[in-house]
Amino acid sequence: MNREQLKNLVDDVYSEKGFVDVIRLANELGIEVVVEKRPEEFNACIEYDKQTGKCRIIANMLHSLSRFRFSVAHEIAHFVLHQQLVKKEGLLNREKKNSDNFKIEREADRLAGEILMPASAVKEYFDRQGIREGDQVNEEAVNQFARDFRVSTYAAAIRLKELHYLVPGIVLA
Question: 87: closest CA among 124, 59, 52?
Answer without folding.
Answer: 52
